[in-house]
Amino acid sequence: MAVWFIRSVNIGHHLKEKLGLLGVLNNSLQHHYCRDPDAISSNSAYIFSIRRFESTKAQQQLHSMYEDDDQNQVLDFPGGRVMLTPEMGFISETPEQRVKCYRVLDDNGQPIMSSSFPEVNKELAIKMYRDMVTLQTMDTIFYEAQRQGRISFYATSTGEEAINIASATALTINDIVVPQYRESGVLLWRGFTMQEFANQCFGNKADNGKGRQMPIHYGSKKLNYFTVSSTIAEQLPQAVGVAYSLKMDRKDACVITYFGDGGTSEGDFHAALNFAAVLDAPVIFFCRNNGWAISTPTSEQFRSDGIVVKGQAYGIRSIRVDGNDALAVYNAVKEAREMAISEQRPILIEALTYRIGHHSTSDDSTKYRSANEIEHWRMVREPVTRFRKWVQWNGWWTEEDESELRSSVRKELLHAIQVAENVEKPPLADLFTDVYDHPPSNLYEQERSLRETIKRHPQDYPPNVPV
Ligand SMILES: Cc1ncc(C[n+]2csc(CCOP(=O)(O)OP(=O)(O)O)c2C)c(N)n1
Ligand SMILES: [Mg+2]
Asked: Relative to the CA of 16, which of 262, 268, 325, 336 has its CA 20 to 30 Å away?
């Protein structure tokens, strides 16, 4: 499988061979320390004393230089040896070449001649395609429901269906998903039903979150899918913690956490990458670089070659992939999962894509981007059509299959919405439960005050919420 990840360690082979005894000893201890959680408790005092010894020697090491066989001077520095040079040179702010983007299918759904092929058989391909269409249809119908005033909010994944479904396909149900909010398709793939999606969006009594969250803040303990929280990037350090717990428990599973390009402008992103790297946490950081963070274009977020190079900066193996090519996404995540678990390390994937829809129902993106730009991605680079062409090219899909699927999904969704709308809302008392065993007095006071206000202004409160 020709999936190339940028290696986090770029040290030349000949230099590695010349490492001194201290370096080798330190390396093997670090390896032991990081890979074997049990070793942490039993050997921690020993490792700590070695490290302290090393740090008190730091000053001495700074002045110690060695000549290697090539007459190059080497600085023995805590953390690794560094080649010295008499030539002053700043590292360029832009690489000579931008990191290439891995893809398998061209824009027309045709396999690229030289690309190695992922093993996606007919059954899997059809399930992937069906779920992409379901996600698309779900987005259309819920979006319309919001426009009709039936739900309060919605955000579509339009343009990012391949990322959603293909990444989910490459994982197992034991892998834990720590999402942002534009990854409903991952939950769909795992078996969240249309009724469950509708119940959450309508905030009714059957919703797992008891109606306490905005629409699209899904979560499912059963499906190993953490509940969405709106605060951008806060999920990333949490994901590292979850991955570290999998490591401690020696689980044959990893964590995948999703985030947008906007998320990388938060401090949490950087803290998470660094923690994951030094803890060797089995976590896949999946960045959906869709060009926009609401109205802020990526050109106002960073000057680097996208996100992929930031992985390497933190010592994390990384890849850039075409997010609108389902087969490339599938291949990259499958390989990333394998490395994350077998080598116990984090991996970063930057998927290039485009947010075709508005940011959410609270946004009008025509105010800040050109219609041509949106049209280009909708017509030329659209991921569902591209995948469909490949499935059809294989002779696995017909026009009749297409119309049958679209109409049955639509019917099922409309039914789910109708049912969800008629289910009772959770009682008012639920607002104050599930956080404390014994709620503090100020919460009791707030509940009392709310009930009094409702009594005084009943016309301002929804009649379908039991008080
Ligand atoms: C900490 C924080 N700051 C700001 C916001 C407001 N906000 C919600 S979504 C969003 C943009 C996120 O963009 P990106 O991460 O690229 O995801 P995308 O919407 O493009 O999928 C912002 C700024 C927030 N929810 N949390
Ligand atoms: Mg974005």
From this structure: 336
Tokens linked to 88: 């002053």
Q: Say how far apart CA 70 and CA 61 lie, in whole Å.
A: 21
25-38 pLDDT, tens per residue?
333 333 333 334 44
Is the torsion defined by CA of 139, 142, 146, 152 positive or negative?
A: negative
* Second-level CATH architecture of 122-422: 3-Layer(aba) Sandwich (3.40)
Measuring CA to CA, which residue among 314, 324, 328 is closest to residue 283?
314
Neighbours of 177 (CB within 10 A): 27
Is 230 part of the annotated catalytic residue set? Answer: yes
* Structure tokens, 315: 């010592």
In terms of Cβ atoms closer than 10 Å to its own Cβ (0-12, 13-18, 19+), residue 350 is buried
SS3 content of the chain, % helix, strand, coil (to 5): 50, 10, 40
Q: Relative to the alpha carbon of 233, which ligand is closest?
A: 1
Q: What angle do CA 425, 231, 313 make, to 5 degrees?
A: 150
Q: Could you say which DSSP state residue 280 is in?
A: T
* Percent of the chain residues past pLDDT 70, beyond the cut: 84
Ligand 1 mean position, distance from CA 263 (Å): 7
Q: Residue 246: how many CB atoms within 10 A of its CB?
A: 22
CB 196 within 8 A of CB 187: no
220 flagged as catalytic: no
Q: Which two tokens stand for residue 288?
A: 């959906």
Alpha carbons 367 and 224: distance in angstroms, whole number: 38
Computed over every residue of the chain, the mean pLDDT equals 88
pLDDT for the residue numbered 8: 43
List the one residue out of 131, 128, 126, 125 whose CA is nearest residue 193.
131
Mean pLDDT of 388-399: 97
pLDDT for 117: 66
* Residue 298 predicted with pLDDT over 50: yes
Parallel, antiparallel, or unpaired: how do β-strands 296-297 and 347-352 relate? Answer: unpaired
Q: Which ligand is closest to the CA of 258, given by its number?
A: 1
- Measured from CB, residues less than 6 Å from any atom of ligand 1 are 182, 230-232, 259-263, 288, 290, 292-294, 355, 359
Reading the block at residue 59, the tokens are 């000053």
Instruction: Answer whether residue 23 shows pLDDT above 80.
Output: no
Q: Are 258 and 180 in contact (CB under 8 A)?
A: yes
